[in-house]
Amino acid sequence: MNKIKKLFTEHPHSMDETYFEHLICAAGYGMRMIFAGFAAIIHSIFPFLFETTASDLAREITGDVKSRRDECATPKQGEIFE
After folding, report:
1. Crossing angle for the helix pair 53-73 and 19-45, nearest 10 degrees?
2. Angle 2-14/19-45 helices, nearest 10 degrees?
3. pLDDT at 81
């Protein structure tokens, strides 16, 4: 049972999150990516609509993921990393 639990919790814990915190965050990214995909498809047909929506969302998601990784790698107050 511990091996199965580890499959679901190892990565979220590496991001200093619980399984459910990680689920909500990752699902949010997924929904934004789906929206960006639809915006890109609509833009391909109607180039005057959603001119920067997909690329703006991609940049926003990338920046958010990077800041979460950086935050996770930064020692918190009182922690010592060697």
Report:
1. 160
2. 60
3. 46
